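Model: Ready when you are.
Researcher: Fold this.
Model:
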Amino acid sequence: MADTTKPILEISDLWVTFPAYRAEPVHALKGIDLRIDPGEFIGLVGESGSGKTTLARAVMGLVPPPGVVERGQVLFNGRNLSRLDDDARRAVLGRELAMVIANPRAELNPVIPVGRQIANVAYYHLGMGRAETDRVALNMLRAVRIPDPERRFSAYPHELSGGMAQRVAIAMALVCSPRLVISDDATSGLDVTVQAQVLELLQRMVGEKGASALFITRDIAITAHFCSRIAIIYAGEIVELAETAAFFVRPAHPYSIMLLAAFSHNPALRARWTRLPGDGETASAGGCAFAPRCVRRQNRCVDEAPALRQLADGRYVRCHFPVEMAAA
């Protein structure tokens, strides 16, 4: 039986760096700290280029070369996957740790029927016979609500809609009942109706499997319905971490408020929290990465990088002048 008192994922001071030609190395992740307990559904929100996918790959021990983990560690169920050899890592990936990506057609083999692809995952990781894996795969197609699953078992990926292909990808990720599921913008390419259906399906099945989930998205509104805690990432740093209800009642970091203001129908509110950097204005090496875009920027923000610290209500914020502190 799994130990529910220990975190399923523990990330400590994680730095991931990519070399740059004739330039300083790019720090894709800078001191990430994050913990996911058994059964938690954590949302990781940030714009494109913020480091979300790099973090997902680092969790799986698959930082793409020439990227390197400069320092820090990622412990999944107490193990550092980056230190395992290829065979040991493959035994964990798919069996205990699974990922659902945004483009399922890139994940699915175009020349193998989708039912067989699900069965192959069970065959490799669970050691079942072919007849048993076929039965399990068919049950998974039913569980993810694929219409006419008996017929779709023999269908090829190009014969499925985007929504059905994503359901197949979810079935592949969950067929072995993993302990942690990472969803990396898994519904970004779907229309809103299908997106809601797939998200509800993923939440339900992750819960039924007793798993935890790291839900990575650019759409902060989605996290309100599906996540227990929310982590906001900007320029490779977590800038706010809070319980979902508390976060949406009163976000504390200016970037968090800017993301929420983007959904407002009030132009004045959007303008109040949105600032475009001036010509040639960039973050200083020793200052806050968000300073050039921050409407609350002060001299200290330009000169001194803020640390991630805990506020009175239990949330963590990386800001010298968080909004809650100003309102207190």
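Researcher: Now this one.
Model:
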Amino acid sequence: MSGPRSGTPNGRLRVGEGRAEQDRALFARYLNKRDPVDRELLVERFLPLARQLARRYERPDEPFDDLFQVACMGLINAIDRFSLERGVAFSSYAVPTILGEIKRYFRDRTWSVRVPRDLQDLALKVDRAVTELDLQLQRKPTVEEIGAKVGADEEDVLEALEASGAYRATSLQTPWGADDDSGDTLGDAIGHEERGFAQAEDRATIEHVMRVITPREREVLRLRFIEDLTQEEIGERVGVSQMQVSRIIRQSLARLRSYVTAQEGEQAQPTRSAGLFSRPASPSAFAR
């Protein structure tokens, strides 16, 4: 009676045992002689394992060829470091080594902004979980469902989802929309401090308080703070001496400060308004 065929469970077991024995024999020969040919044979023998692990971490925005190359590097490192004295199958040793190389690649080479490694690992798990749940549920999964899938708290999931935004940097010069011909970029959507509001307030305050001084005093202040003329040049314009110009500026500013203080008392606003006349005002404040 013939022995078990390869199609039977016992036959498959013997085939597996035969392959394991071949692996041990090949490793024993390579570790003994360090022959590059044997090394290449081992790489070719376990290349499907590296490809399978690379597929596990495949992402739309990450070329598979790059991941496969990283997995192959991990496979080569595992071959070079493996020892038969470990008493385990090579695949059991190679899997964590290859996965470690792939995770290191994601941590150190692909993130535009450096974030903690544990958060990077969780972000990768969350990304895979979202893809799987999308297909399974036929809708966007909730944070609670994602947390149950990856075994993490909802706060950690939210932090991982936010961290995923640091994976790829986008230029501020990127067009706002694919079909937008207006020339607007993402940078145009970023808010910035608008200093014009403060200048408008200054102008309104000055316009109001300037009524308490004479037209000649207003003209002297305009020439000094808007035209930025020297006192000598102002004196030539209005027909007075430099000393008189200095006195006009000093007295008019003192009268303006007194008026503001009297009008607004001890409130916070007079402190700001009075400050306009305790220092040379900017031209934009006097401009109308």
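Researcher: Key takeaway?
Model: The radius of gyration is 38 Å.
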